[in-house]
């Protein structure tokens, strides 16, 4: 892992954590496009609560607490969870060693 | 645009779950060709970044908001098959941990935000990238347009599903007008964020951007004649 790659990855992770942990507090709380359209068309009331609506992180809040800290913690947990699952999956699927070199040489040619 | 439980009937939800499962199975195969030791960590970070930015709803007009979907951004950064996997992980974590998007609607959401948005947006990107100049600006313009188009198309795909399996008996034209209209506006935000983020990564590490491979090839070809005399000295 080169230092240049590591710098980019650390910067990207810090930015993601900042957006989810801090900037998300300033998000618009108006209904999103689908909710708005469902209300306009008159079918919003057919929405049902998710089976996990009572989970400790539901609605991006810690135990339903509407505060800067609660939302920030939920966002940080989410970023780490997504990074863990997606990162493990993509790492497991990667081409390894010699394969990768051969492939890059081939794609550079065409 | 996360579809909650209840909007679509059981049969339609089951059908979209089957479509989503098939799409993800294909993506698991396709992503192997896109991922190597340099790009795999970037793919994980791209998913985490999309999750983070999706939390920040921006206002669109009076009393409505939208947020990034991120499928086209991910496709341009790490490749379309990997983007489908990124979107699937984001939607799963949102549905399971945060109750954002229904559990029975998970297949619907993967189909709309993963498969439809990525496929349509990537097709638009490829088409425009082929005709626009092979420059950073050309890549970004193609990415922005792909991102823009992906949002109303995903919204109209929902309307299609609603026509088949919507639980409520409401006029379809009203649903289509409302969904299409508001998501054209949200698509502008999608395009702006996609261009800003892809532009930032292109500025510092163009070599890592999947959608800019054609630029690298052009640069390699352009460099070659000059590098021969330099090496001979």
General description of the model:
The complex is a heterodimer of chains A (110) and B (233). Helices cover 61% and strands 0% of the residues of chain A. By secondary structure, chain A is an all-alpha fold. In chain A, helix 1 runs antiparallel to helix 3. The two termini of chain A are 27 Å apart. By secondary structure, chain B is mostly helical. Chain B has one domain (10-232): Arp2/3 complex 21 kDa subunit ARPC3 (Orthogonal Bundle). Chain B has helices at residues 10-34, 39-54, 71-78, 80-98, 106-131, 136-165, 172-204, 213-232, and strands at 58-59, 65-66. The longest helix of chain B has 33 residues, at 172-204. The model of chain B has no long low-confidence stretch (mean pLDDT 94). At the A-B interface, helix 1, helix 2, helix 3 and helix 4 of A face helix 1, helix 2, strand 1, strand 2 and helix 4 of B.
Shape label of chain A: elongated
**What Rg of chain B is obtained from the alpha carbons, in whole angstroms?**
19 Å
What is the count of distinct domains of chain A?
1
| Largest interface (CB < 8 Å) | A-B, 69 and 82 residues
> What general outline of chain B do the C-alpha atoms trace?
globular
Count of individual beta strands of chain A:
0
Quote the CATH topology of chain B. Answer: Arp2/3 complex 21 kDa subunit ARPC3
How many structural domains does the protein architecture of chain B include?
Answer: 1
Order of helices and strands of chain B: HHEEHHHHHH
Task: Describe the structure concisely for a colleague.
The complex is a heterodimer of chains A (110) and B (233). Chain A is an all-alpha fold and 110 residues long.
Which key terms come to mind for this protein?
heterodimer, A: 110 residues, mainly alpha, 4 helices, 0% strand, B: 233 residues, Arp2/3 complex 21 kDa subunit ARPC3, two-stranded antiparallel ribbon, 76% helix, globular
